[in-house]
Design a protein that fits this description.
This protein is an all-alpha fold and about 180 residues long. Helix content is about 70%, strand content about 0%. About 20% of the residues are buried.
Length: about 180
């Protein structure tokens, strides 16, 4: 084996790896759906717990959760409503980026309002923040209501009657 064959083999392996990863693009919508379902489930369960025992929720917001600039009752209503409403929007993929942004705010406020967060709970919040960031950057994906609704709303608002995937692509003339 000559000294030059090892870099060539490494380059070939790298190229094969890139092709293998590129062939997995079809998994992206499934990953986006999984992220939406997981994060929505976390916030939905939290909101349902708060709603189930409202007196305890009000006491927690008054005594333990110190939400800046808000009355504890208002904070409890907004936090619980946000967890429930935004979770439903996110899992459906309806206004997905808006829902992910709203849940991100709730996640950050939860961290700010708790004085002492155990390390395990902090890691949970960081993980949820990373999934919400993923959904903010890349959207809710092809398996969402946004994927079907937003192009139709855009075409209606802009007066364009051709939806993506319908009709021929516009011809671009090239001057040589």
């Amino acid at each position: 084996m000559t000294p030059n064959t090892t870099p060539k083999r490494m380059a070939r392996l790298w190229m094969l790896g890139e092709r293998a990863v590129a062939s997995l693009d079809w998994l992206k919508p499934l990953a986006q759906l999984a992220a939406r379902v997981y994060v929505s489930g976390v916030f939905l369960r939290s909101g349902m717990t708060k709603l189930h025992d409202w007196d305890t929720t009000l006491a927690l917001f008054a005594d333990e959760y110190h939400v800046p600039f808000l009355n504890p009752t208002v904070a409890a209503v907004l936090g619980t409503g946000g967890e429930l409403g935004l979770s439903v929007l996110l899992v459906a993929g309806l206004f997905g980026r808006f829902a992910a942004a709203g849940l991100s705010v709730i996640n950050i406020v939860a961290l700010i309002s708790l004085m002492d967060v155990p390390d395990a709970a902090l890691m949970g919040h960081v993980f949820w923040a990373s999934l919400l960031g993923f959904l903010l950057l890349w959207g809710p994906g092809a398996l969402s209501l946004d994927y079907w609704l937003i192009p139709r709303l855009r075409s209606r608002a802009l007066g364009d009657q051709t939806l993506p995937g319908q009709g021929a692509a516009p011809r671009i003339s090239r001057v040589v």
